[in-house]
């Protein structure tokens, strides 16, 4: 039977587009109100805030995150190659802006180790090109902690035009200029992606690519912190192969290790890891996480200050951290042009991590987010803070998990965290002057535990899916051994190639009948299947298009043990020989048989089937080459008196076949060529003479 297709209603796309444009361009008070409430979601949920139910959870989670945020902000400044004050600025402004514009109730937006690393690599490269010394181990400046003064060792000046005035800019000034320009461009890209609804870009970053990218970047972060752990002074490596070059320099200078930094690092790592393990084991009993990082920083700062570790043992310390806010400044346009390309992967990674975390926690706590608004939120979390000497931000998994475990209900907790950071910015920042850099490096390295533990999951990942494991390994290796940006690109391209290869060489099978049923399955995979007499059933588990056409034909000929083109050539050759014998008057054929017996010898090899059923259930689409391939096998097998029947075609495949003329001009033979189940096709083939 042939099912009747519904008549499609023609859609006037032009009229729809015109109507949408009119609706978009119209401006009414109600529409303006809806726009503002959509753009600032806080206007929707804040009036409905259940104070008695939510406030204590938000305050507790906000305080805990704020306490965790301060030491992490100071530590991640090492990754970004900037002063700690800029990390504190970033944490403050990101929390405030996401509170206003974000749609997730739980994610913690702020500094993130991976983003800080990407920013730091661009900053280091541009500093090197500008002629600055990348050695950041010079003695810290004392005095009032003004950010306008650079270290004495960095005497190179860079002419920078600011507000029409040609001014000299030192290393620190130029570094934050690069970071803000990079952050501004990343935010602009994210806002443009939101305007043009390009959030689908994140679909090309699979879980394997993201995990591999994060793990590879974690190895790079770990490598960059080793010199602080042992207190050696080596140049900051730049460019491709940074990880290998850094380790070579570390082993070359290992004899210069600072014994004070080594001992301090060992103690801090033991304390931090032990506290983390205890926290993980008893997290269900603890009402809030142990503020281990803050305790370690406070104790280490006191020991360093009163023990005079910098003066006596030459241990590298953080230096002066000023209080208050620096006057805002527009990012330099000339610097934006230099980092425009670097900002693109930064924007994509920042957005993908934020949206994926938002969706994960929205699903867990049964509410919805708007991915497009998340893109606007994270974009403006980069654009606006870039005017206030901040760098790129993203959502962070570790802080978000802590936030939810301490009772967070809304983004009010983000405001509380921002107030804690503000307290440090206004009053407490100078107290961290004597904090050793090796302590900050320990905090960073211990925070990488989750990403580095991915290596333990490789065997389980391999058992689940070998191709995904290969994607993870390639992405991780490229991110660690080449560079993070190249690693991300390699991961995306390689994962796409894997998909293409899997469609180029998909599984193919001949099917047998499950006994006493109307169902058919792979004869090589299942026992006790019955072959169908005089019928071959071929399954192709992929779309049929130009890239796998040859594989389709080779697999079909191999499994059916018959190449119709070769068979037709054999027949023509034999017929030619027969004609030559007849012309000579020899009534015996080339095989010594009579003319009446030649029909038995026309086919050198006996064909054991009279119908070929192609199971199209796994063929999702056909291109022009695919349609022509099916027309080709239809013609070739017809020359051998073998009928080709198609089964289980989806509507789009049927439409492609109709447009390609597979069923003839009037579709008159369609009922004899197309079937809605394999069993119907088999019954039809058996009824044929």
UniProtKB/TrEMBL annotation:
InterPro entries (alphabetical): S04_transporter_CS (IPR018045), SLC26A/SulP_dom (IPR011547), SLC26A/SulP_fam (IPR001902), STAS_dom (IPR002645), STAS_dom_sf (IPR036513)
A GO MF label: secondary active sulfate transmembrane transporter activity
UniProt KW keywords: Cell membrane, Glycoprotein, Membrane, Phosphoprotein, Transmembrane, Transmembrane helix, Transport
Gene3D superfamilies, sorted: STAS domain
Transmembrane segments: 54-78, 107-123, 174-196, 208-230, 250-274, 335-355, 376-398, 410-428, 472-501
Pfam families in the cross-refs: STAS (PF01740), Sulfate_transp (PF00916)
Protein name listed in UniProt: Sulfate transporter
Name of the gene this protein is made from: Slc26a1
């Amino acid at each position: 039977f042939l099912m009747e297709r519904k008549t499609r209603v023609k859609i006037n796309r032009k009229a729809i587009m015109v109507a949408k444009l009119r609706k978009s361009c119209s401006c009414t008070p109600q529409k303006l109100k809806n726009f503002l409430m959509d753009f600032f979601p806080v206007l929707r949920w804040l009036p409905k805030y259940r104070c008695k139910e939510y406030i204590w959870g938000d305050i507790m989670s906000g305080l805990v995150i704020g306490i965790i945020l301060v030491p992490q902000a100071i530590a991640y400044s090492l990754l970004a190659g900037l002063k700690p004050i800029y990390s504190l600025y970033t944490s403050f402004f990101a929390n405030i802006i996401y509170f206003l514009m974000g749609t997730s109730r739980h994610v913690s937006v702020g500094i993130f180790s991976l983003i800080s690393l990407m920013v730091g690599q661009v900053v280091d490269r541009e500093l090197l090109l500008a002629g600055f010394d990348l050695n950041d181990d010079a003695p810290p400046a004392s005095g009032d902690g003004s950010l306008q003064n650079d270290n004495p060792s960095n005497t190179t000046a860079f002419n920078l035009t600011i507000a029409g005035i040609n001014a000299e800019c030192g290393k620190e000034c130029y570094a934050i200029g690069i970071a803000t320009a990079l952050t501004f461009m990343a935010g602009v890209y994210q806002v443009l992606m939101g305007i043009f609804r390009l959030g689908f870009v994140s679909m090309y970053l699979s879980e394997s690519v993201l995990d591999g990218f994060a793990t590879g970047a974690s190895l790079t972060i770990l490598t960059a912190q080793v010199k602080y752990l042992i207190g050696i002074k080596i140049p900051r490596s730049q460019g491709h192969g940074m990880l290998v070059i850094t380790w070579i320099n570390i082993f070359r200078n290992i004899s210069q290790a600072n014994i004070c930094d080594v001992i301090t690092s060992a103690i801090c790592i033991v304390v931090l890891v032990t506290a983390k393990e205890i926290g993980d084991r008893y997290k269900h009993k603890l009402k809030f996480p142990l503020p281990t990082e803050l305790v370690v920083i406070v104790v280490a700062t006191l020991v360093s200050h009163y023990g005079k570790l910098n003066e006596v043992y030459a241990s590298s310390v953080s230096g002066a951290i000023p209080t208050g806010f620096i006057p805002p400044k527009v990012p330099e346009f000339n610097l934006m042009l230099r980092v425009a390309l670097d900002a693109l992967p930064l924007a994509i990674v920042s957005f993908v991590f934020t949206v994926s975390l938002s969706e994960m926690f929205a699903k867990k706590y049964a509410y919805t987010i708007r991915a497009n608004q998340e893109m606007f939120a994270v974009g403006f979390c980069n654009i606006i803070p870039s005017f206030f000497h901040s760098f790129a931000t993203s959502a962070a998994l570790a802080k978000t998990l802590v936030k939810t475990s301490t009772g967070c209900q809304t983004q009010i907790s983000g405001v509380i965290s921002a107030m804690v950071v503000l307290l440090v910015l206004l009053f407490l920042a100078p107290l961290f002057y004597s904090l050793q850099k090796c302590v900050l490096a320990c905090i960073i390295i211990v925070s990488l535990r989750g990403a580095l533990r991915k290596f333990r999951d490789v065997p389980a990942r391999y058992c689940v899916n070998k191709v995904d494991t290969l994607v993870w390994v390639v992405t991780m290796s490229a991110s660690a051994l080449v560079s993070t940006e190249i690693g991300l690109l390699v991961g995306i391209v390689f994962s796409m190639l894997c998909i293409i290869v899997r469609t180029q060489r998909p599984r193919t099978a001949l099917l047998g009948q499950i006994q006493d049923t109307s169902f058919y399955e792979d004869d090589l995979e299942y026992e006790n299947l019955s072959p169908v007499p005089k019928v071959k059933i071929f399954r192709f588990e992929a779309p049929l298009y130009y890239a796998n056409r040859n594989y389709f034909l080779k697999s079909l000929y191999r499994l059916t043990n018959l190449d119709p083109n070769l068979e037709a050539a054999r027949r023509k050759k034999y017929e030619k020989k027969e004609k030559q014998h007849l012309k000579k008057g020899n009534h015996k054929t080339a095989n010594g048989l009579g003319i009446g017996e030649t029909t038995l010898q026309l086919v050198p090899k006996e064909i054991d089937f009279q119908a070929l059923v192609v199971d199209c259930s796994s063929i999702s689409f056909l291109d022009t080459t695919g349609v022509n391939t099916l027309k080709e096998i239809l013609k070739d097998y017809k020359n051998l008196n073998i009928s080709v029947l198609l089964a289980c075609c989806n509507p789009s495949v049927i439409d492609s076949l109709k447009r390609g003329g597979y069923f003839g001009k009037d579709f008159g033979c369609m009922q004899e060529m197309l079937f809605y189940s394999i069993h119907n096709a088999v019954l039809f083939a058996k009824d044929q003479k």
